[in-house]
Specification:
By secondary structure, the chain is of the alpha+beta class. It folds into three domains: 115 residues, no CATH class; 189 residues, Jelly Rolls (Sandwich); 70 residues, 3-Layer(bab) Sandwich (Phage tail protein beta-alpha-beta fold), CATH 3.55.50.30. The chain is 21% helix and 32% strand. A hairpin with a 7-residue loop joins strand 13 and strand 14. Helix 2 runs antiparallel to helix 5 and helix 3 runs parallel beside helix 5. The longest helix has 13 residues. The chain is globular and about 65 Å long.
Amino acid sequence: MSIDRITALLEKLTSNTCTWQEKKELFTLIEGVDDPQLKAVLEAAWLQYNQPTHNLSDASSSIILNNILQRNQPTRVLFIRQWRAAAVAAAAALLIGFSIYRFTGSPSAKQEPVTIASNIQAPATHKATITLSNGQQVLADSIANDQLVMQGQTKVIRLASGEIVYQPQGQHEEVLLNTLTNPKGSQVTSVTLSDGSRVWLNAGTTLTYPVAFSGSERKVTVSGEAYFEVASAGDHKIPFLVNIRTNQRDSSLVTVLGTHFNIKAYEDEADTRVTLLQGSVQVDHQQQGLRIVPGQQARYAAGKQIQVSTAASAEEVVAWKEGLFAYQNSNIAQVLRDAARWYDIDIVYAGNKIPDDTFTGEIPRSATLTELLSILKMSRVHFKLEGRQLTVLN
């Protein structure tokens, strides 16, 4: 059954009709199946994908495959049939994950191996903490349906799925604030606020919110990256406000009336990005207010005015929530900043030289750091990993 499902999903992937949910399912199935047919199924998918329309030469194809399979010998020009015996299920999972590759310039004919002292796995657990109104910190994973945390008249529970839920039990006489912190090296964490709005927090993200909303507005504060699905406020149309804060930029405000949107505002990013998927929001920054519509992205840097443009595809923007790294002509520095938060590592650039290479592709966030670097190395960037410090060598 698994092989049949994998085959069906691979057909959709190679024809570019696979949804993000289906891609996530495919990665999970490939990583979990142990079947001798798997290598043949994957090879057939690669042969179908590697058609002239993708402009992949035998040399480029071999470089990709050798890096995915983490071979140590110098890359040679190989035909697809020659790596049938070398493929293994764990590495092949990544092979199918990288649907499209496009790099600046041509891949080097000789690829030096990534220098790795020890591999780093993708986050396997949630490490989020909740800072309660009295300052007490609680590990989110310690909260369960049979172990409730009370904040005033609100129950805080954690569902079997891992989602944190706030359930008001009565009227609150005072405003009580909680802060949900999802640190680096943690899986994506989600929370349902007291009004039914849902928020997903990427690694390295903090969200502060009332345990129960009251009054004429619903206001939260975020730093990092979060995806919001805001619940309707009913007949009263109580606005949902998101205060975006970073130390590098003046705080800004997003005003919402029932919508889906993504905010990316990390301290180490040069700008803040608000991307609207559904509904309507207004972004206010430095006495400037702009309303955006679905498919648009509001972007501003320190001391700069808001710029509105057509966003990358919605799927690419929220890929992190669906278990994928996804990039379209993104520079390597951007990819490495995302990796630093996901794998909880430090990035150092030798000689303070930041590569200007770009990367386009999809990588399952379940990949190990070594597997990710093996793919990035094809853009002619080389690395050395010692402990939790990754040095970019060129």
